[in-house]
């Protein structure tokens, strides 16, 4: 078990935190994060490489290599480009995403990835945006991009007390989309608010009704595997900080490459969409 406490470092800020730490440790091994360090609790073996090893490897890389602007052609810049592209391939491989199907765009964090989608998605009058009620605050901001461009915005409700999506109402909202327009459905694979994991089969269901799907996977992928060969959202946002703690300030937007639009029920094809954002 891993728990963080503020004031559990002997500063006297939190006596209750110390009591809770002692109670939890009595039930088994406990890792405690204190300030900028991580120390062993009770009954656990010595820590593995973890954050310390990750930081040491990063420092060794910086000491042994000179990196330059990736947009230049000198040796230092070429080293940066090679490193970035190798990392990009590793990210796609981890999510089992073929380079023929997806591109990986590095961002400052998951919020930056979400903003990139909101800014670049071709919302227009007649189109729609649909968000779940338990989306992260950063996802809710996409609604304003939709409204500014004349698209209609709706929210898919949850059912208490489990706080799962109301599938009946969600189906009705998905049916409102005009397949000839650009429609974006955004929901979290795992709720940041409740921890509920929503069904991934919603991706294919929404796409079959004329929606592009933004899957916020930032809270999901730190503990669950996302297989992008099995389920293929149009956009996936992740935060590497949430996955392994270091380095901070790195996220990614995984974008499914544009494909020929599917036939509509009337036999017509949807108009081709603008190109997806490309990595920089």
Keywords:
280 residues, alpha/beta, 7-stranded mixed beta sheet, 3-stranded mixed beta sheet, 19% strand, globular
Describe this entry's structure for a reader.
The structure is a single chain. This protein has nine helices and twelve strands. The chain has 280 residues and is α/β, with parallel strands linked by helices. The strands form three sheets. The chain has a seven-stranded mixed sheet with strand order 4-12-11-10-9-5-6, sandwiched between helices. The chain is globular and about 60 Å long.
Task: List strands and helices in order, with pairings.
Elements lengths: L1 E3 L10 H11 L5 E4 L2 E4 L9 H15 L10 H20 L7 E6 L2 H11 L7 E5 L4 H4 L1 H7 L3 E5 L1 E2 L4 E2 L1 H8 L8 E6 L13 H7 L3 E5 L18 E5 H5 L6 E6 L24
Parallel strand pairs: 1-2, 5-6, 5-9, 9-10, 10-11
Antiparallel strand pairs: 2-3, 4-12, 7-8, 11-12
User: What does the largest sheet look like?
Assistant: 7 strands, mixed
| SSE string | EHEEHHEHEHHEEEHEHEEHE
> Percent helix among the residues?
25-40%
Compute the number of helices: 9
Poorly predicted ranges = 1-14, 29-48, 264-269
Assembly context of the chains = single chain
> What class, by secondary structure content?
alpha/beta
Instruction: Please tell me the overall pLDDT.
Output: 81
Dominant shape? globular
Q: What is the terminal separation in angstroms?
A: 39 Å
């Amino acid at each position: 078990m891993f728990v963080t406490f503020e004031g559990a470092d002997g500063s006297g800020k939190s006596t209750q935190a110390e009591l809770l730490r002692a109670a939890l440790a009595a039930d088994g091994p406990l890792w405690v994060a204190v300030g900028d360090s991580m120390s062993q609790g009770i009954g656990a073996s010595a820590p593995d490489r973890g954050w310390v090893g990750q930081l040491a490897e990063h420092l060794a890389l910086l000491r042994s290599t000179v990196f330059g602007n990736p947009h230049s052609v000198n040796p230092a810049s070429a080293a940066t480009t090679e490193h970035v592209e190798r990392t990009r391939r590793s990210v796609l491989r981890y999510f089992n995403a073929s380079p023929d199907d997806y591109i990986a765009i590095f961002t400052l964090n998951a919020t930056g990835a979400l903003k990139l989608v909101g800014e670049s998605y071709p919302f227009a009058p007649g189109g729609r945006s649909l968000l779940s009620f338990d989306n992260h605050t950063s996802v809710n901001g996409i609604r304003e991009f939709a409204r500014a461009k004349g698209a209609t915005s709706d929210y898919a409700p949850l059912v208490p007390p489990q706080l799962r999506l109301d599938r009946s109402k969600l189906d009705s909202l998905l049916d409102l989309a005009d397949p000839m327009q650009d429609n974006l459905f955004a929901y979290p694979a795992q709720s940041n608010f409740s921890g509920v994991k929503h069904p991934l089969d919603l991706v294919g269901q929404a796409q079959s009704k004329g929606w592009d799907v933004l899957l916020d996977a930032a809270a999901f992928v730190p503990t669950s595997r996302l297989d992008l060969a099995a389920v293929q959202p149009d956009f996936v946002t992740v935060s590497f900080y949430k996955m392994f703690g270091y380095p901070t300030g790195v996220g990614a937007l995984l974008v499914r490459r544009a494909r020929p639009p599917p036939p509509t029920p009337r036999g017509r094809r949807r108009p081709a969409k603008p190109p997806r954002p490309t990595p920089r």
